[in-house]
Amino acid sequence: VQLVESGGGLVQPGGSLRLSCAASGFTFSAYVMKWYRQAPGKERELVARITSRGSSTNYANSVKGRFFISRDNGKNTVYLQMNSLKPEDTAVYYCYVAIWGTDYWGQGTQVTVSS
User: Fold this and answer.
1) Please, are residues 106 and 5 in contact by the beta-carbon 8 Å criterion?
2) Which of 15, 5, 3 is nearest to 112 (CA)?
3) 3-class DSSP assignment, residue 29
4) 3-state secondary structure of 103
5) I need a surface site. Which of 2, 7, 101, 115 has the fewest CB within 10 A?
6) Are 67 and 83 in contact (CB under 8 A)?
7) Between β-strands 17-24 and 77-82, what pairing exists: parallel, antiparallel or unpaired?
């Protein structure tokens, strides 16, 4: 199983970024995918979740209405569109999947929101 995130970077407050997570080594279309983030000195927190076919999504209250998770099962990729970014969104963002009780994480991508 491999999860490779991309799309992070430095953005000004109010800006947008789209993160991508390319998955391989498992049947991507069969699994719920999640995005987590971890800010310095804080615990890792769940940001968004999407069901295997993309029919249902859930978000942390702190990002609801600003972040949108989606997936392309033909490309084995999950996305996180982040709009109206705030300095408190600064964190390392991780892609995650659980397969038969085993957790798999990507290497993370840094998102920094600063003027």
Assistant:
1) yes
2) 15
3) helix
4) strand
5) 101
6) yes
7) antiparallel
- Is the Cβ–Cβ distance between 35 and 93 less than 8 Å? yes
Q: How far is the C-alpha of 5 from the C-alpha of 65, rounded, in Å?
A: 22
* Distance, CA of 106 to CA of 25 (rounded, Å): 13
Q: pLDDT band at 98, cuts 50/70/90?
A: very high
Q: 54-60: long-range contacts (C-beta < 8 A, 24 or more apart)?
A: none
For residue 13, what pLDDT is reported? 98
Q: Percentage of the chain with pLDDT > 70?
A: 100
The DSSP-derived string for 51-100 is -TTSS-EEE-TTTTTTEEEEEETTTTEEEEEE-S--GGG-EEEEEEEEET
- Residue 27 carries which side chain, given as an amino acid letter? T
pLDDT at position 27:
98
